[in-house]
Structure formats: C-alpha cells, structure tokens
Specification:
mainly alpha; 4 helices; transmembrane helix; DUF423
Length: 122
C-alpha cells in the first residue's frame, strides 16, 4: 500500500460518512424508526472513526502494514455498509437478512485491525 492510497481511502470513507450522516439525519429521519436511525448512526460513526484512523495512519506511513489497511478497509465495508443495507431494507419492509451475519464479520475485521496495529507498535 502506498501512503497516498491509504490517505485517499480514509478520505473517501470520511466523505461518505458525512454524506450518509446528513442523509440519515435529514432524508431518513421521517422514514426510519428511532431504533433504525440509531443503528444507521452506529454505522456512520464507526465508518468515520476508522476513516480518521486510516488518514492518521497514512500520514504515519511506517506504522501501517498491508494487513492493517485491508482489515480496516474491508471491515468498514462489511460492518457499516451491512448496517446501512439492513436498516434501509427493513424500512422498505424487505429486510435483507443475509446481511445480518456480515456485520459481525466486519466488526471482527476492525478488531483484528486494531490488534495488528497494537502488535505492530509493540
């Protein structure tokens, strides 16, 4: 991974997090229940937290390995985007249940990314 790719990935996820957060707060506020909106916001928050982390790690390029990058990148996609899909499909009355097991796999990849980062700095 190059430094530019890591920073660009973080920037794209950060930008999308702002867009999805605004979309959830404004366009979906009337469509989603409070529980659905809170779940959607969890996806947005975790996406932003890890986007910021990728940008910071990109600027500290020596501290990131390819495995760390991929764990965070795939983890964001599986965790946050599966939550978005579950919430939006549930709001439409056609919940995509196959996404249910995807969310914890994404969460596990995020945890592994953090563990690899810890091991890398030790």
């Amino acid at each position: 991974m190059t430094q530019e790719i890591i920073i660009a990935t973080g920037a794209i996820f950060g930008m999308l997090s702002v867009i999805f957060g605004a979309f959830g707060a404004h366009a979906l506020k009337k469509t989603l229940s409070n529980d659905q909106l809170q779940s959607f916001e969890v996806g947005v928050k975790y996406q932003m937290y890890h986007a910021i982390l990728l940008v910071v790690l990109g600027f500290n390029f020596e501290s990131i390995t390819s495995a760390i990058y991929w764990c965070f990148t795939i983890g964001i996609i599986l965790f946050s985007f599966s939550i978005y899909g579950l919430v939006l499909s549930d709001a439409k009355g056609k919940k995509m249940r196959f996404l249910g097991p995807v969310t914890p796999i994404g969460g596990l990849l995020l945890v592994i990314g953090w563990l690899l980062l810890l091991v890398n700095v030790i």
